[in-house]
Each structure stands twice: as C-alpha cells, then as structure tokens.
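User: quick one - fold this with adenosine monophosphate bound?
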Amino acid sequence: MQQQETQKYSGILVYGSHNDEGPSEGMLELLGEAGRLQRQMDRPCRVHALLIGDDVQRFAPELGWNGADEVICIEGEAYRDYRPDLYIDALEAAIEQVKPEIALILATVQGSEMASSAAVRLRTGLAAHCVELRFDQDAYVQVVPAFAGKILGDIYCPDTRPQMATIKKGMFERAEVDSRRTCRVRMLEVVNSRAFDPIRLISSVRDQKTEDVDIGSAEVVIGGGLGIGSKEHWEQLEQLASLFHGAVGCTRPALDQGWTEREDSMIGTSGAVIHPALYMSIGISGAAHHTCGIKDPKLHIAINRDPHAAIFATADIGVAEEWDTILPLLIDRLAQRKEA
Amino acid sequence: MKGLNIAVCIKPVPDPAYYDKISVDPKTKRLQRAGAPAMLNELDRYAVIRAAELKQQHGGSITLFSMAPDDSRETLLEAAAYGADAIVLLSDRKFAGADTLATAYTLSEAIAARGPYDLILTGNESSDGGTNQVSAQLGEWLQIPHVLHVRSIDYHQDHFVVSAASDHGVNTYEVTPPMLCGVTRQVAQKQYQTLRGIKYSTRIPYEILRAADLGADEDRIGDAGSPTKAGAIYEPPQQKEVRMLTGTADEIVEQLLLEIRKAGVLQEH
Ligand SMILES: Cc1cc2nc3c(=O)[nH]c(=O)nc-3n(C[C@H](O)[C@H](O)[C@H](O)COP(=O)(O)OP(=O)(O)OC[C@H]3O[C@@H](n4cnc5c(N)ncnc54)[C@H](O)[C@@H]3O)c2cc1C
Ligand SMILES: Nc1ncnc2c1ncn2[C@@H]1O[C@H](COP(=O)(O)O)[C@@H](O)[C@H]1O
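Assistant: Sure. Structure tokens for the protein plus adenosine monophosphate:
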C-alpha cells in the first residue's frame, strides 16, 4: 500500500440515511458514537455530518442537536432518488473536502455500496458492519463480525485515511438531544466528471409507509420462525405483539414462506438489528445468522419444542414446549389483564 | 447479435451449518474451523443460475472467476454445472491476507485480462465475511457502472434493465453494458445441480492463474495490497445462563407473566 500523509486528516465524517421527515435513527446513532470517539481523542476533532438529497439542508439543525459540529449538504434535484453513480461521487467529494481521519457510514443498502466504492477511489480500508469502535493506546480499532457474529475480529487501518467503517442501525446509542447546540452548515457542489450518465434511473417505487412499529426501535419484539407452521398461526404473533404495542420480527425461512410480507422485519445478518427490552423468540432454532441481530435484550424468552435448540444458549428464559400450548394461554391472560 | 459474455464471481465459503463449531483456540488465538466443508456461497448460486438463463435467451458465454485455494475445484465444478463455459481460479500464496480492496483488485485484473465482458455478476454478499463490499469494489476497479441488491436483470437489445432495492423501496435502472450486478435471491429460482451436470463441467477449460500470470501490481495484492490489517480474533462473550421453565402450561404461563412484568414492559393503563 502506498503510505499517505495520515496527519493531514482529522475529524470524523458521518453519513446515514434520511427520509422526508428527517435524518434516520441510525444516522443519529452514528453521531452519538462519533461524539464518544471525539471525547476519547487527545487532539482536536470535529464531527461532520453529511446530507445528500433534495432539499436536505432543513435537517441540519437536528443533526447539530445530536452532536454534529458541521453539516455538509450536497443538494439538488438529481439527488432526489438514489443513483449509485451520483451518490458515490458525492460521498467521495465530501471526504476529499473534509479529509476526516475516521468515516462512519450507516450500513443501509445505499450506504454500504457508497462506502465500498469510495474506499476504492480513495485507496483506503473499510471495515464492514462494525460492532464496536475504540482506541487502543493510540490506534483506532474497528471490531467486525465474521461467520455471522460467531467470531469477532479487531481491524486496524494503520497507513491510509480515512479509516472507514460501515455500521448497522441499532448498534450504537444516540446522544442526549441538546437543542441549544448549533452547527455550521456548508453547501458543497459536486461536479460530475463523467461525460454521460452510465446509469439511468427509470423508476423509483417507495415502500408504502405502514403504521406498524419499527422493529429496530421497538420495546417489545415477538420473533417467529419456521416452527410457527402457517400463515394462520402467524396471526397469533401479531396478536401477542399488539398487546405490548410491540413489533413482530421473523427469520428468513418464515419470510420465505410468505407468512409475513415485511422484509424489513427480518432479524439477523441480512436483516435488522433489534435491541428491545423484551424479545420472545418462538419456533426459532437460533442460527447465528439470526441471533447476531439480537442486541442486549433485557429479557429474552425462547419457546422451542426442541430442548437442545441453539436458541436457548442466547436466551434468559427457555420453554421447551410446542409453542401452541403456551402462546394462546399467554395471549388470553394478557388480554384479560388489559380488560380488567 | 453477438450474445452476452458474462463473468460470474464465485466464492467458496465454509458451510454455515458448521458455524456453531467454529471457535478460536484459546492458546494459539487462531481460528478453528472444525472441519467445516467448503460450499458455494449461497448468493453466488443465484448469480450463476441467472447467468445461465440470460445465456439461454441471448446466447453468449459464461466464465467463472474465483480467488480461492487450490482445493476449491469441487465447489467451482458445481457452480459451473449450471452452464458455464470456462473456470478461472486465482490461487497463490501471494494473494493470502487480502482484504476486500485487494480481493476486488485481484479479481478485476483477471476479469480485465480474460474479458471484455458485457455483464459481471456477483453475489450481493458472502455468508462468511458478509461484508457486502467486494461487488461494488470490483465495479470500481473495473471502472464500470455497478448496481447492488439486484432483484431482477433483463437484457433488451443494447441495454440492461435492472431493479434493485434502495433504502426506501425499489429502483429500476437502465444501464448500457458493460456493467456489474450484485444479486440477491430474488433474481432466480433456486435449483440444485445433478451429478450428471457436475460431471459435464469437468470437461470445460479449468485454468489456474498465479500472481505472476496476472502480471498484477504486487503492491495491490494480498496482505501488501490491503489497507486493513487483522488484529486479534475472539469469540463474543456468552455470559447468559438460560433458566428452563417446567410445569403445566398454566404454570409456565404464570411464570412467564411474572418475568415479563419484572422486565417492565407491560404498559399500565
Ligand atoms: C448468507 C445467509 C444469510 C442469512 N441471513 C439470515 C438473517 O438475516 N436472518 C435469519 O433469520 N436467517 C438468516 N439466514 C438463515 C439462517 O442461517 C437460518 O437458516 C434461519 O435463521 C433459521 O430459521 P428458523 O429458526 O425459523 O428455522 P429452523 O432452523 O428450521 O428452525 C425452526 C425451529 O422451530 C422449532 N419448532 C418446530 N415446530 C415447533 C413447534 N410446534 N413449537 C415450538 N417449536 C417448534 C424447531 O425445533 C426448530 O428449532 C441466513 C443464511 C445465510 C446462508
Ligand atoms: N475470493 C473471491 N473470489 C470470487 N468472488 C468473490 C470473492 N470474494 C467475494 N467475491 C464475490 O463478491 C460477493 C460479495 O462478497 P462479500 O463482499 O465478501 O460479501 C460474493 O458473493 C462473490 O460473488
């Protein structure tokens, strides 16, 4: 690798997603983590948040309240919907401008692609889906999962900058909101060097917004697996979740069966990370691909008819019974309580 | 029409069914794979299946590329059985220690040397590392447009129509070849190979390329070409001790209610 002049880089750049209402929860979590890193550093360090989109400047104050010292805005109609080529150029341009020593990028569909591509252009290292970031003496350490989280590894990026990481939503905690905090806003124009558009967007369909609770921030999650057995049975999970105002999550086989349409409710490596107070896993075997998406629940109750199922190794309370001998009773009892 | 020349990147990975047996040796701090057999990375299977369908419709050829140890032959033959015309294995000690940047560079050098290709397919992510990085990085090294999380790919006369997940839904793009797609399970119907098919694929050209054959920049391959360096590996702390509930169903439910109440999630109303 070619050595860079690493000391020319300073500060932390944060990029996450947003919707029409504002920055995503995940973006705010990354700002929280950036703040924690900032406080551990013995040198001046500013936190720069990056917004890319149409008319996004209006979100800048909220990023400031959540820890950004400066917000970089790359705006314009061309950025209304995602186009990989334009968005990658934008991230690259922002990094060139800020020259951060650390970049934290939310591991969404778009964020992962943008980070990977920018890392090639900048010839620097990128650590995927980090679960912990820290300083070890002076070295910055990014902890990544392998084999669906069965193994963790420390990653260093000694010679090139920025040291880039992608992070899934739900990994870190956001900071206390401080609405007196203000931040600088910097508009950045990106000149697209390409002579023609290699990628043409012909349609962009947005998911229907549902009234349901977002699984990533739900206090109670009821997770169902292949052991549930049918779509009719699945309704019992919905019923149980609604008694807690909670959300229903699923494993991949349950999604594949079509028992739920919500792809975003899949928990695990290829899906969401949840950190509820209560997680109830029902008819789930406990494959690492699934359990790595369950982060520090206060209470994890597992129901699986197989007493040797791996899920019990990650649970606090286990019930080795057919689920349908337990769940209807539990639902009844909770419903009665509500009525009382 | 000349047909589509397609390159598909294949990664042999340890069988996920053995993940529970993977551990870190407490003394040597090295990974113990407990004999987990290698298998075709799940999403790469969908990539070759879709490649074979496109070849059927439009004519052309399929070449598989893999950077993997010499003993990966069986996995590659299985992948080839879907309808590949040639296999290129990149194997050399000098490739060892490659992070995603170096892996993508190495693959890009081989693909550029054997190409040009109209379409390059990868799995959207691998099951072991699961970085979801190599696809876009390969597209960048090749300097061609790339789309990830691809749910469908079709070819119309002179352009691809690709639909892919975005953060908010599904986007559809038109792209002129060459391009790269990282595919998800939606691009094709899963089907397994028969032994006969696998036998057939022993007859197609199987080429092993070493670092010297590639003529690649030595500073960009393997550990030397990797900006990230691996430090310690360890197993995540598992301090949980499960308490199994017993009794009649009624008794179990009572105990569950007690625990749930203690967790403070029952909304009082
Ligand atoms: C690359 C890759 C990525 C993946 N990503 C994910 C991911 O993000 N999320 C995910 O969830 N999976 C993912 N998977 C799949 C994962 O490896 C497992 O296959 C999956 O989590 C298993 O789902 P399950 O527990 O529902 O089904 P199974 O493993 O089939 O388990 C069903 C369980 O239900 C129990 N059961 C059956 N009947 C009853 C009953 N009547 N009462 C009580 N218990 C019963 C059984 O004892 C069994 O333990 C991924 C796989 C790969 C290869
Ligand atoms: N060593 C490799 N050889 C061939 N293809 C690879 C290799 N590593 C990754 N890939 C391809 O890149 C995709 C994404 O891998 P990853 O970035 O590891 O999640 C895989 O599905 C493969 O198609």
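One thing worth noting: Chain A has two domains: 6-187, 215-339.
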